[in-house]
Each structure stands twice: as structure tokens, then as C-alpha cells.
């Protein structure tokens, strides 16, 4: 993919440290794995997935914009030229990827939905090869095969699932929007720093959600409900509002900053392949915190995913 090497308006070459980039993506996937368990617990209170996504986008926007307004207010300035891009990035790249993912998990097993969504790295590689006419190393293609195979073990695809047509369609759209998010972010970090990019992107996403679901109709009665989580390693009881704070901070702001920041050190194809560790991380966290089963096949699948990621990263 396009290799972003210049900071916005400064003309200074970024130190593209690959190991740092890979570490940032893996850390992001681990936090998204934690976010999955927190979100699942919050949804068990009766809060809808769309409302949870609205809280996630709006909370992230408020915190990031406030932080920049106090430290670097000039970074929040938007030119007329970049307005269409930020609108596309916020609504399609941030709001829609969550929207169609939640539609998919409503109609499919969450593991199947994740497996379909993580066709995104393959879509990125195909875009690089067929549209941008850029060379994609054979080792990257070879890495995608065991990685997808390992994901199928992690999500227990072979135990037998009933595939719902609209659910599959939503998961495929989620894969496309996830790929688009990574590609847009990779392009944008040549012109904007990751913090202001995400602050503005989440702002547009929050505006979108406020139109779809006005805040005055938010079901506040769920916020004080306490949710008990009893896993194989951790056991805790938390109010829904605390879970929502965790989803915003741990599951949104930090991992998205890590992923966008990583695109200054590695390209979108490698970032997408590395992010495929998320289903493995999610299964492990769900076992430790929610008590969901973790079979030998899932552990083997996680090891295969890691092997595929390492193989992709050795393709220089």
C-alpha cells in the first residue's frame, strides 16, 4: 500500500519502525478482545447494540475533542477540501463498520461474523494488487491461507452453524467497511496526526448516530443495572455505566489510536493481517472473564493465526 512517510505540513520523515508498528496493532487487537467481553456483558442488560455503538462513538468523540481543544486546538481545524474525506472516514470507516458488524452478530454466531469480517486483509491485498497495481509479496498471500484457517478454528466454525443470508451479507459489508477504514486511515496519516484524525472521525460518526437515534430517547434505566461476570480466571460485578466507560476508553480510544498510529510504521496490508489476531484474543478474554469455553482446537487455531501473522511480516 501507499507508504506514508511525511508528517502533515512538516515534511519530516517518520521513523518507520516495523516492530513498533506490529506491536501497536497486536496491542489494539488485545484491547478489542477485552472490549468484546465488556460489550457482551453490557448488552446482556437489555441495552441494544446500536445504542452501545452510539455511546462508543460519542464518548470517544467528546474525550478526544476535549483533549485536543485543551492542548492543540489548531489540530481541530478543518479545511473545506478535507471535509468530504473526514465525512467518509467518520461515517463509512467508523460508524458503518460497527453498524454492520452488530447487525451481523445479531443474526449470526459472533465467531462466524468475525471470521467473515476478517476477510478485510484479503480485500486490502486485492485492492493493492488489482487497483493500485502494487506488488504484493507471495508470502503475504501464503500467510492469509493459514491465518483464515486458524480463525475458523478459533471461532469453532466446524462445529456446524446455520448461516443466515442477511447476516452473511451484513458481515461481508462489515469486512468491506473495515478494509476501507484501514485504507482511509493509512492515507490520512500522511496529512493529519492520528489523534486529530480519530477525534474528527468519531465526531462525524457521533453526529450520524445522533440523527439515527436521538439522545433524548436513550434508555437511561439500564445504566445502574449490575452485571455479574464469572470467568475461568476473573470474577467481577460491574454496573452497566462502568462497562460503557470501559468500552469507550479501553475498547475504543486506545486501540483505535494504536491502529492508526501503527500505519505510520507498517502498511495497511500488514496491519490488516496482524489485526486478524483479534478473534483469538477475544476468545481468550471471553474464557478468562466470561467463562466461555476454550477448546484445544481453538488454542491450536490461535497458534496458527500467530504463525500466519509472523509469515506475513517476514515478507519484506
Main attributes of the structure:
316 residues, 3% strand, mainly alpha, 12 helices, two-stranded antiparallel sheet, globular
Describe this structure as you would to a colleague.
The chain is mainly alpha-helical and 316 residues long. The chain has one domain. Helix content is 68%, strand content 3%. It contains twelve helices and two strands; from the N terminus they run ααααααααββαααα. A two-stranded antiparallel sheet has the order 1-2. α6 (138-154) packs antiparallel against α12. The longest helix is centred in the first third of the chain and has 26 residues, at 18-43. The protein is globular. It starts with 17 loop residues before the first helix and ends with a helix.
Q: Distance between the terminal alpha carbons, to the nearest Å?
A: 13 Å
Task: Give the averaged pLDDT, no decimals.
Answer: 79
What proportion of the residues is helical, as a percent range? 55-70%
Count of individual beta strands: 2
Count of domains? 1
Q: Roughly how many Å is the radius of gyration?
A: 19 Å
Low-confidence stretches: 1-15
Can you write the helix and strand succession as a string? HHHHHHHHEEHHHH
Major beta-sheet overview: 2 strands, antiparallel
Instruction: Tell me what portion of residues adopts beta-strand conformation.
Output: under 5%
By DSSP (H or I, 4+ residues per run), the number of helices equals 12
Strand order of the largest sheet: 1-2
